[in-house]
């Protein structure tokens, strides 16, 4: 429970009790009790929106389970399309509950048809009220928030080079000329890559020095950290201090040099939120590609390293990243095909004949077909989120929150393509991408391929959804082992606990994928629905616990992640419709097949309405709110001190040495004071 | 020359001279002489942009003719792919100049390959500088313009219903509360459909009365109008006056009733352009679908009848119109297929066996194959623009300019689909729409079909481009005959001349279609290029004359039509690339075929850059300009009187009786004064 530890709600020195390692169900109660408002005040709106995904999932699948299990399942089972091979019953038992078992041309398929229409209507209704709810929450959150620097600040990029004056001067002159009444100040962005490297190096060296000193002077530290610190190397302290001084000198020279290294970008702060919004929304200068304005992120949220300031380079890197992402997404199916090969033992035998003996052992075959595919998939998948984060950061987003949102979208499509489509299609046909060049055939191909993978996805929900994610999250085994190993190897165990933030970019796509599975298999194989419902029940409790006890919000987007959820659900619905069109065609009910065609069109129209209705509220705040907030501030005496701070809020942390929180907190040694000039 | 007549530059009573009917080339000199600035001051920026289409076309096809005729044509002719059937030479002579004549797998195709790359680069370069030029013109035009009501005014739609107060009160209270310093006034939109009908009826009756009176009292009018006015019916004047008085009474009661018929929309005027821009660009109230703001059009530009004020109805009618437009566009191919059937005489014989004897006559066959197809096409096509205008007006656009632009885009795609694709494909295969469901086969199908229609399109350029459009436009035969016929039938010959405005919505798609033809056939059949070039030479002169002498601008969009030209050219380039990919595949040069694939992608990337670079300038004006203009106004003494007028500028013409220009101009009779209460 890193967050509680960090906030010192749980005493650090609490004695080790074996009982604490045993499972207890106390936490469920604890996680259940707090209301949504508590969560909002404790972890911000993003956490609330994150939990709304589970609420939404629970509502959707509660309805789906009722319809699917009580109505569709009996009809599927009563069919006898597959009853010819009764000898093969154990293998086919799952499929006898699926739509494959309904007779061709049977009138019972009209029940499926109605179920699809009703289910779509219900999901759309739930989507609408959820979007509405979150949009209103977002405004309420804005009203209740304290004045924050990002509300008053605009990031200006692509400031053109003028021969006679510097970037800073041209920003100053433009904004003080055109917005004289509300322009407050600006701070230029500087090229601090080298400085940041030096500072980090010096920082590390300093920490090591402090650590070494502490080991020499204060022996009681050993007991507290409870680690194998004895195996550390002994280095001459004086030598160390000298090299640190050198570094310090480098930092200072670099810091003085940095002032000239201005980048064509600046954070411009205003005295009113409305002016900031005007500057953001109204094109400023003649060329739309120069003086590009956008909402500044929160100062803590800024990602400094990949700061691309020019419109053209940002645009180019954007295109390059999209191309790279498409390549990664499309070519990733090679390992997936391999995994799928493991599930199809026959294929494995064909590919690797030497494995034949091994494969024919019963235990091996069970393990291989049952668990290995999901495990390998998960393993490979866990490598992907960092790659996506990297791609998104190259794309030129300025804030962690934007990088995570972009990575979230990338990862979502990656997951859908590589887990859903690659699995579905590689079992049937290996020519994945090509079939999408002939859109006419897509429904038929999907209709053949998707129902066949129902049992695989049920096992995927269990292995990937139930066991792996929650146990790993809840007990945080990985970080525990990792910190233990690090403690042994580097003797750095007295490093402060870093409180993790919720990795939205990797969590949301996983959850959305289960929504996709549930919706797609809703009428194909209703047997998957209870598993998905249980997943969402588990998830609701577990993630509430995580958000209260483990994670600490790193940024606050004001619920912008919900748009991803909405789009993914719409996509899932349309995928279901396409499969339905194919299935009804295969089952020889062509009228039902054609009658399903309006459904995706209606869903898309609904989606476009939702986008018009809600999306603008997620891009910015309405003028009404901005003006009201501005007026509230006018009557607030603390505003003037806030404006004083605003001027320096957007300095690069590498440049503003004094304000670097981590170091200044523990600055009690004279060396540190000297170092922090 | 209606505009000159209306502006009384040409004396009306000038004696009829036979010489004036004879062709003279004086006008060419006259049309050539004025500079672009003259045109700008005389007919506005839209006229300049319209002429830039011709300048652009001339530049593109000057280059294309040089490359096509001097380089590609000889290579095509030197090939001997088609030389097998020398007996059929006259028929095939055109094709021997086309790419079909190049040998399969010949290395000469690499010359075509290079030509495509170079041509694309040149066209993109020209597009870029043209876009840049027009964007800068647009800003300059804005700077030089006088204060206009639309610059200060915002149209607010979808004002929600509140029980306690009227729409007008809620507009007043919102804007005076949130924009107290710059809010000036507002005028509500009212439901005036019935009133407008009554006013028009009374207007007509009044005109007739004046006409009858003039015939009785002032006999000299006969000579002036020079028409067969004697055949008019005699009606008792007193009876007529009485019915007019009734109408007048109706108008007055309706006008007093109209005040209550407020619609949820208002024109809100501000004292500064920047505030208006802020209100437009920043979402105003909590719900994005309420208080929807947009730039108000010029008061003369407003199209009152289809004023849909609610977001939801506008959104729905938008979707309905798009669906209707797609249906019209797709189903229109039936007459086109028939026309194409006429061109393929064999097919005609097959369809209508009884025509066999007729068709085999030489004259008939020549007429049928030569001219009839183009003529029928043009005839049917001339019915389409009004339909598109109707569709666009239902869509809920508030201004004539927007309706015309939207109709222009609709008509463009209509033309491309129904003239280009339907002709190209119906000759080869009748299953038009279906092939686009299999994108993989599109290049190959187009590569087979498009070159075959080269001779048809050459004749289309000549009949449709050269002869018909220009002769009809220049001599304005149709309006002349029409007004003559009307004069005979209705005795309304003393009606004022109505100066026509340039029908951009029907002219621009035609011109763009020739650009499309020229670009698409550039490497397929370079023989078409001189014809297209001549078309643009003609067009340049003729339309200059039209813009100076015939048309009077009805509205001013500030060059927004250029975006349509840009998009159409990009589409033409990509179409050419797709055909090239197919052709190189057919001609067995697969490497060239694959090497062409990056070209459309690069073109699209170029297009997306252009959109980012220029499009924002076409949506609004930058803050810099707005603030500068506002400051200029502050020093201008005439501004206060302008603001006084601004308050009443946005009244519905049916409501503001006094200011209705047409009637008040000629209000010298006491009846008229009474009628115009």
From TrEMBL, chains A, B:
Q: Which InterPro entries does this UniProt record tie to the protein?
A: Csc1-like (IPR045122), CSC1/OSCA1-like_7TM (IPR003864), CSC1/OSCA1-like_cyt (IPR027815), CSC1/OSCA1-like_N (IPR032880)
Record's compositionally biased regions (Basic and acidic residues): 653-666
Stretches for region Disordered: 653-677
The transmembrane residues are: 60-79, 109-128, 315-338, 379-399, 411-431, 511-543, 564-585, 591-610
Identify its membrane topology class.
Answer: Multi-pass membrane protein
Domain CSC1/OSCA1-like cytosolic: from-to ranges? 151-305
Q: Does the keyword Lipoprotein apply?
A: no
Provide the CSC1/OSCA1-like N-terminal transmembrane domain boundaries: 5-130
The alphabetized UniProt keywords are: Calcium, Ion channel, Ion transport, Membrane, Transmembrane, Transmembrane helix, Transport
For this chain, the family text in UniProt reads:
Belongs to the CSC1 (TC 1.A.17) family.
Q: What's this protein's name?
A: Uncharacterized protein
Organism name = Dorcoceras hygrometricum
């Amino acid at each position: 429970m890193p967050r509680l530890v960090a906030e010192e709600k749980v005493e650090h020195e609490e004695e080790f009790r074996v009982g604490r390692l045993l499972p207890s169900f106390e936490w469920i109660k604890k996680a259940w009790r707090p209301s949504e408002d508590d969560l909002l005040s404790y972890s911000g709106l993003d956490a609330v929106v994150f939990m709304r995904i589970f609420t939404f999932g629970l509502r959707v699948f509660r309805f789906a389970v009722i319809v699917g299990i009580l109505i569709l399942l009996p009809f599927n089972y009563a069919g006898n399309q597959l009853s010819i091979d009764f000898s093969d019953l154990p293998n086919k038992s799952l499929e006898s509950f699926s739509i494959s078992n309904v007779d061709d041309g049977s009138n019972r398929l009209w029940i499926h048809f109605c179920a699809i229409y009703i289910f779509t209507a219900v999901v759309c209704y739930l989507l609408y009220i959820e979007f509405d709810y979150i949009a209103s929450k977002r405004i309420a959150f804005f009203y209740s928030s304290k004045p924050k620097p990002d509300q008053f600040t605009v990031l200006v990029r692509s400031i053109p080079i003028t021969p006679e004056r510097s970037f800073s001067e041209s920003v100053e002159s433009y904004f003080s000329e055109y917005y004289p009444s509300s322009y407050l100040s600006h701070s230029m962005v500087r090229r601090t890559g080298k400085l940041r490297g030096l500072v980090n190096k010096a920082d590390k060296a300093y920490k090591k020095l402090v650590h070494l000193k502490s080991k020499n002077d204060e022996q009681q530290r050993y007991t507290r950290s409870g680690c194998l610190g004895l195996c550390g190397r002994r280095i001459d302290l004086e030598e160390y201090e000298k090299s640190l001084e050198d570094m310090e000198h480098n930092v200072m020279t670099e810091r003085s040099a940095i002032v000239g290294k201005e980048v064509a970008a600046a954070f411009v702060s205003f005295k009113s939120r409305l002016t900031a919004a005007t500057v953001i929304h109204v094109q400023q200068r003649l060329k739309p590609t120069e003086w590009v304005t956008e909402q500044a992120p929160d100062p803590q949220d800024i990602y400094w390293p990949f700061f691309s300031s020019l419109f053209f380079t940002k645009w180019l890197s954007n295109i390059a990243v999209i191309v790279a992402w498409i390549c990664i997404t499309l070519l990733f199916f090679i390992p997936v095909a391999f995994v799928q090969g493991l599930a199809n033992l026959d294929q494995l035998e064909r590919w690797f004949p030497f494995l034949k003996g091994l494969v024919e052992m019963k235990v091996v075959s069970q393990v291989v077909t049952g668990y290995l595919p999901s495990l390998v998939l998960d393993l490979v998948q866990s490598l992907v989120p960092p790659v996506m984060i990297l791609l998104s950061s190259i794309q030129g987003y300025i804030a962690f929150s934007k990088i995570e949102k972009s990575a979230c979208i990338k990862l979502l499509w990656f997951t859908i393509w590589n887990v859903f489509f690659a699995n579905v299609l590689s079992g049937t046909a290996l020519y994945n991408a090509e079939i999408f060049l002939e859109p006419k055939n897509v429904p038929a191909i999907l209709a053949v391929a998707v129902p066949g993978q129902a049992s695989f996805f049920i096992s995927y929900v269990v292995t990937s959804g139930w066991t792996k994610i929650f146990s790993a999250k809840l007990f945080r085994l990985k970080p525990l082992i990792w910190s233990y190993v690090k403690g042994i190897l580097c003797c750095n165990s007295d490093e402060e606990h870093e409180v993790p933030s919720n990795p939205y970019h990797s969590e949301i796509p996983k959850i959305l994928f289960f929504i996709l599975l549930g919706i797609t298999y809703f009428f194909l194989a209703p047997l998957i629905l209870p598993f998905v419902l249980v997943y969402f029940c588990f998830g609701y409790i577990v993630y509430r616990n995580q958000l209260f006890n483990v994670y600490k919000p790193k940024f606050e987007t004001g619920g912008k992640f919900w748009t991803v959820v909405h789009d993914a659900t719409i996509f899932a619905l349309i995928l279901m419709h396409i499969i339905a069109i194919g299935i009804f065609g295969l089952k020889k009910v062509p009228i039902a097949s054609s009658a399903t065609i309006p459904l995706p069109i209606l869903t898309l129209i609904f989606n476009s309405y939702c986008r018009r209705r809600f999306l603008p509220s997620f891009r910015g705040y309405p003028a009404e709110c901005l003006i009201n907030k501005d007026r509230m501030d006018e009557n607030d005496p603390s505003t003037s001190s806030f404006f004083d701070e605003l001027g320096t809020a957007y300095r690069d942390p590498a440049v503003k040495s004094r304000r670097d929180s981590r170091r200044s907190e523990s600055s009690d040694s004279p060396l540190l004071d000297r170092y922090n000039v």
